[in-house]
Amino acid sequence: MKSFSIVAALSAAFVALPAFASTPLDYDDARHLLNRTGFGATDAEIRRMIGMTREEAARMLLAATRTSAVTAAPAWTNDAGPLRYPRRGEGASEMERKQFQQEQIRDGLELRGWWLDEMLATPSPLTERMTLFWHNHFVSSQQKVRLALFMYRQNVTLRAHALGRFGDLLHAVARDPAMVIYLDSAQNRKGAPNENFARELMELFTLGEGNYGEQDIKDAARAFTGWSLDRDSGQFVFRRFVHDYGSKTVLGRSGYFDGDDVLDILLAKPQTAEFITRKLWREFVSPDVDEAEVMRIASRFRDSRYDIKVALYALLTSDAFYAKENRGVLVKSPVDLVVGALRQFDLKPGEPVPFAVAAAAMGQNLFSPPNVKGWPGGETWINTSTLLARKAFLDRLFRADDAGGNAADAPARAMTPAPKQAIAPGGVQESEVARRIRFLRAMDRGLKSVQFDSNAWLAQLDRNERSRTDAATRLLLACAPQGAADPTNAPLAMVRQIVLDAAYQLK
User: Fold this and answer.
1) Contacts with 214 (C-beta within 8 Å, 6 or more apart), sequence order
2) What span, in angstroms and rounded, lies between the C-alpha atoms of 367 and 109?
3) What pLDDT is recorded for position 85?
4) Percentage, residues of the chain above pLDDT 70
5) Closest to 39 (Cα-Cα) out of 137, 100, 131, 128
6) Which DSSP string do the residues of 115-157 spell out, in sequence order?
């Protein structure tokens, strides 16, 4: 059986779930809503929502959203003064370039840990889920951007507009320094237009494939000439001397357009609202899109001047969202799995970076999507390698003891020595194998920082359930397990059996 086809593989094991009540929400409805809009709902959070109507619950979630993080950002994000990085042609030595690279790796790791910490601490998980959604829509990657500071600033921008108006978000991202670098806008100038941003703007950010032509891309690229960055501050600048002021024709409209004009032309097209609504549908409802419903919601979205909350409210109160056939059909992303487990089991990491690294090992490296199309998600989250990484993470998180040796030793022993050398933070040469072993052991020490008390956790669950096994299964699984947990097991063994069931990978 192909491990990457988990939904198909489990379909035979699914049982019919109880029919939902439109009002009020029952336990299963509330769990479904909170797990789709956040990360790993707790029993207490679910019970606070029981009895609300769909509309009341959606309004409550949307009213609680934020525009800024509650977790203090890394200290280096507040550094004043000009940017510090080796510049070509200015005599930077090879050692200076390597030290800069190592510094950015360390800053990038700290940044990943900070965002994961925010996902755990935020009073509005929906805010972070939408920030992550837009990070995978308006893709940039630290590998190309290089400066972790730019990735942090983009994250701040995405959060500020995550549940505002899509038009405001689109205009802000087009000027975002990380985006300017990632899609080569700074190289776009009169007489030598670079079409990268214009192409992805139409194909991936607004209209979708098939709704524009090559000439539209060429003229749109001319409109964005001169959009660049100041090398010292890293702030957006418009360089008017390299802007093409000539007439352009974009999607049937002609004029002396600049970049903002093109963005507004794209927002005026109904295909933009439809494209974004389809992505939201796949994120929150189902991989299978109901086109009639998408058109209905997209019309409301566009009529509201692209108010993202209007689109989400329509999705989260729809019959399709609560339909039994749409439960347990989405595969948890690695971030879903890691953050959800930590939240659901009230585990407090002393250091969040190892858990961000664990998500990266499963295929979702924050601030580093694989390409401009982002993480494809869905069943692609599951393959032979990532499924083993998921199981190993959960197995390690809910370990009974440390017998059998350090968990990092096994992959380390499996490595064969390689001659390639890397520069350690102190400037000392170390082999790639040694670096990976050091990294794995650091991650394992981080995983050891959390201890799960199964007895205390089970004691918090509703005592009205037929058994602690039923209560835990109902909380943790969105669909029937492949194998029922044994109620005679010790508490920790029972919890381990549930989280290692394939159904725990779904939401």
Assistant:
1) none
2) 10
3) 73
4) 85
5) 128
6) HHHHHHH-S-HHHHHHHHHHHTTS---HHHH--HHHHHHHHHH
Predicted confidence (pLDDT) per residue in 222-246, tens digit:
999 999 999 889 999 999 999 999 9
Say what the pLDDT of residue 87 is: 61
17-20 contacts at long range (C-beta below 8 A, 24 or more positions apart) = 17/324, 17/327, 17/328, 17/479, 18/324, 19/324, 20/322, 20/323, 20/324
DSSP at 2:
-
* H-assigned helices in 268-333: 270-284, 291-303, 308-316, 319-322
Phi-psi region at 292: left, alpha or beta (left = phi > 0; alpha = psi -120 to 50) = alpha
Condensed to tens digits (0 to 9), the pLDDT of residues 417-435 reads 333 333 444 444 456 566 5
Alpha helices in 324-480 (DSSP H): 334-344, 353-361, 384-397, 409-414, 432-447, 454-459, 468-476
pLDDT digits (tens, 9 = 90+) for 8-43: 333 332 233 333 445 799 999 999 999 999 999 999
- Spatial separation of the C-alpha atoms in residues 101 and 129, rounded to whole Å: 30
Question: How many angstroms separate the most distant Cα atoms in the chain?
Answer: 77
**Residue 308 pLDDT exceeds 80:** yes
Cβ contact 227:188 at 8 Å: yes
CA atoms 493, 495, 497, 499: torsion sign: negative
Task: Report the pLDDT value the prediction gives residue 79, as an integer from 0 to 100.
Answer: 85
Residue 307 DSSP class = B
Helices (H), 64-124: 94-121
The percent of residues in the chain predicted with pLDDT above 90, rounded, is: 76
Residues forming beta bridges with residue 248, ordered by sequence position: 255
C-alpha neighbours within 13 Å on the C-beta side of residue 60? 14
Report whether 272 contacts 207 (CB < 8 A).
yes
Rg, the chain, Cα only: 24
493 Rama class: left (phi>0) / alpha (psi -120 to 50) / beta: alpha
236-238 and 421-423 beta bridge pairing: unpaired
Residue by residue, DSSP assigns 360-404 as HHTT--TT--SSTT----GGGG-SHHHHHHHHHHHHHHT-S--TT
Backbone angles phi, psi at 205, to 5 degrees: -100, -25
